[in-house]
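Lay summary. Proteins are chains of building blocks that fold into shapes, and those shapes determine what they do. In this project we predict the shape from the chain. Here is one chain we studied, written as its sequence of building blocks.
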Amino acid sequence: MTTISDEPGGPERSEPPIRILRVIARMNLGGPAWQVSVLTRGLTDHETLLLAGDIEPGEAEFVQLRDPTLPVCRVPALGRSVRVGDDLRALVAIRRAIRSFRPDIVHTHTAKAGLLGRLAAFSCRVPVVVHTFHGHVLHGYFRPVATRAIRMLESLLARRTTALVAVGVRVRDELLDAGVGRQDQYTVVSPGVAAAVNVDREVARRLHGLPEDQPVVLFVGRLTAVKRVDRLLEAMELVRRRRPDVVLVIAGKGDLYEEARRLAESAGRSVRFLGWQPELGSLYAAADLVVLTSDNEGMPVTLIEAAMAGVPGVTTDVGSASEVVIDGVTGRVVPVAAGPVAEAIVDLLDSGRLAAMAAEARRYAEEHFGMDRLIADHRDLYRRLTDR
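And here is the predicted shape, written in a compact code that computers can read:
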């Protein structure tokens, strides 16, 4: 129960906790699941019920690896894949949860949960409906016909949604340009991550079997089409022509894992595949740079975690990545191609500026991407919406 005073020094009056039904398609290892976990845990003055579907084959389960005691109500049919029967069952399950929990707010995360969760909320006349765009699927994911259909559907859903949250300014602007929502519906709330745990570099490298005297470039994420691991490996082949001592570490798996291993065969020990890791702090401590070569992103949590650990980044200029990596200050932001990625990596490794960039990356991340700020921004948003 929250207590507030109507005026300074006045008597306190009771304010009932806000009841939030949070819906996400699946808690796979990635940015949306991490943010949902932080909010579920951090909004202690609210009551939250978290609904989530099952992960897909080949994906890593966030709850199992990172937060095993997180309270989650499973809706198996709410997974990523589109199946009419499962989707109808998931819709019924969400409606049942709404009628039982009686939330003040339904807040959805990720595209499929945004569709089914909002339809359930509209049909049950929930007072406030919020959807977060952790990115969008309006390019880089589907064929043009499917993309146009998704754009139209998101536009229709936005008309009845109370508030829209975008993880970055550029993500918001791309959605507005696509006709999804109105400017006054959006609030930009960037992700928040935990402060980095200091790990000795030599200890970290020994832990992961990495050479102590060679530059290490790190990729963390799902090996799937939009992440363009083929571009990453092409870029690293260009890097090795000038810096044959550089080692690329790939932490993650996905549907393109085996293909990526095949593409990297000729590189030998210059490319190391570590799979999903339960703890990333030691990997960031072992790295000189973190790299991202995607075709599309929201605001990449990998880049934020790396910056919090004092690791500069090299990223393609997609989504709101440039709001995390400040070009020329905390890393490099480059065009979407292998050549510029390789050039940036070599330039940074040869520049002698990595230490200064690392310090600036940490300072910037601590100032802009802390968990307390993420929680406070959502608390303020929810209060504004329920007061309204």
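What the prediction tells us: The longest strand covers residues 19-26.
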